Request: fold
Amino acid sequence: MPEWLSRRRGSSAPPPDDGALWTKCPKCGEVLYRKDLAANYSVCPRCGYHFRMHAFDRISMIVDSDFVEIGGSVLPGNPLGWSDKRSYEQKLSADREKSQLTEGVVCGFATLSGFPVALGVMDFNFRGGTMGTVVGERLTLLFEAARDRRLPCIVFTASGGARMEEGMLALMQMAKTTAAVARMRNAGNFFCTVLTDPTTGGVSASFAFEADVIVAEARAVIGFAGRRVIEQTIRQKLPENFQTAEFLLEKGHIDMVVERQEIKPTLGRLLDYALGDKHERVDAKVPELNA
Amino acid sequence: MNLIVEREKGLLELEKRIHELRAMSANQPIDLSSEIRALEAKYAEIQRDIFGSMSAWQKVHMARHPSRPTSLDYISQLTAFDELHGDRQFRDDPAIIGGFGKLFGRRIIAIGQQRGRDTKENLLRNFGMVTPEGYRKVARLIELGAHLALPVVTFVDTKGADPGIASEERAQSEAIASCLMALVDARVPVVSAIIGEGGSGGALALALADYVVMLEHSTYSVASPEGCAAILWGDAGKAEEAAARLKLTSEDLRGFGIVDEIVPEPIGGAHRDPATLIERTLRVVDAALARLSGESVEELLEARYRKYRRIGAWQSDTMNAVTARA
Ligand SMILES: [Zn+2]
Reply:
């Protein structure tokens, strides 16, 4: 475990879920030793099922070495005073506990194949990766920082859409992130999104589909409306492959579908095509932080 | 069943009765004025009772009222309008009406989401649920406006973007995202009027504007109350509870800085006096365009960025807590 990661998670970070050493593949039923699974990018060695990844595991899989977080001090409040069976604060606190994250996205600077990048990674474990005001603000800070520092920007999406408990303030994050993406792209920055399972609703209908290059992780579910909503509307079952990454590739919505193991080298090549010698490559160094 | 329609029934009966008595006293030598006054007092009392303080759920029903003025009712009151059709790629979506128009003589691009005013028209217009082709038409017309330096006026009235198989196959997400991008980049003033139901991202795709006006009893929400209840509690039947929690009324949204101006409605709702209400709304839109047209493109784009940049509410130990409304 890299030093920044152990610092983030703490040496006593609990193992995921129930703490068991073994887990079962939900697709093929194979019983897997968690350590082997982690060493295999959380991909089932038998059937290729991609387990959903923790944001920090994803980051450590992608970056060369260091990662410097930005926007981590932006934390959620309860702007609508939302409360149902539990208060919104209680839900947030339960998700903090469960995910070891403070919100649904982690943003910062890193290097990838020697290229300094602005990197954002969403995590489905925190409120289903939903976009509330904190996710929107952290991503906006990331897009602005990428523009100011003339860095390419990569965002891994994983989201059930806009966060209900923050109402219209959540929906407006689609507008806010779009405005920040536009400024970044108009300044000439390269922007790439990697859509992971699942990417839907307000996230897919904003920055996820506003990138220069859109990569999707193999077999990820990607769409605007949720599967259940469509099935209820049309009153029939949808085909198995509907809204999968492979389906979207065939329909022409995304640039490529990539197996998880291949994502890092693919991003390295894309950065090389997009930037070439424009950026001085650095070895295992992240841009200096003033903020 | 629409709650407002149900509650209106008694009022309409009473209205008819008052009308009859008036006609009778005009034609016959009997003095009915005290009866008429009594009925009018009763009428006013019921009206206050129903519309004096409407709950969020009642407003949801008011926003969906079958007689509530639709985009075409506003567009037909422009001094001129010629419709432009199609997305130049696949189809013309009848849930979007758009084209060249004149607002009190001011040349504009007008775009509106159009639900049906009866079952037949609802089938044609897909209940105002826009497909990707519709959003691509919107983006095209916004770009046309920017190209010809014509300000853009949008009328928002939709349950939400169409959630069908075909829409997913033709990239609904990308279509909505392109509308948002077109609005962010538009080098002309954009004013939006939320005239009915503002349903989720499908509504925002037309409403990322420099100035957003909202009718008093319209709603604008992250998801329909039914959808929100289904997502959070697995029970669309709890929509009334969701409506109360979602903060979807014009007052709430003005408080958050998402809506800039509320257009008051006649007592009983927009459909009780559409002519006055539409004129009033168009005047408000025109005044906003007059103000915005005084700004340079750079000022306009900077102000638009700041307007959306600040929307949120969070805690931070390095920044001041921001609760929208700067
Ligand atoms: Zn498996």
In short: Chain B touches chain A through 57 residues (CB under 8 Å). Residues 61-314 of chain B form a domain with the 2-enoyl-CoA Hydratase; Chain A, domain 1 fold (CATH 3.90.226.10). The first strand of chain B starts at residue 80 and ends at 83. Confidence is low (pLDDT under 50) at residues 318-326 of chain B.
